Amino acid sequence: MKSTRTPFTKLANTIDAATFVFKVGRTEHQVTVPAGTRCCLLEGPNERWVVDDLSFIDSKSGLYLDASNYGIPVDSRNLTKVR
Residue 23: which H helix or E strand, with range? Predict the structure, then answer.
């Protein structure tokens, strides 16, 4: 079943390449996000920055599916060009 995309309020880009870890159930993914990757701030009570442009991940992988459904959290200190 396809999930509904959470609305976002802002966009930004990563300053430097960085490695982030995110968990989905018992699965833990470690992902290196390239510099300049587009990110978005998700709306809601638990606002958080996540990667919006997943083009650097193989779209047929389990990692891509988890990242598109749950989001790869990004540290806001590594963001620039907030709009």
Answer: strand 18-24
- Paired tokens of 37: 């990757």
List beta partners, residue 42: 8, 48
Indicate the residue type of 21: V
Give domain limits for the chain.
8-80
Q: Are 11 and 79 in contact (CB under 8 A)?
A: no
Query: pLDDT tens digit string along 8-20?
Result: 688 999 999 999 8
Provide the terminal-to-terminal Cα distance of the chain, rounded to the nearest Å.
Answer: 32
Backbone phi, then psi, for 36, in 5-degree steps? 85, 5
User: 42-77: per-residue pLDDT in tens?
Assistant: 887 888 899 999 999 999 998 999 898 888 999 999
Among 51, 54, 57, 42, smallest CA distance to 71 is for 51
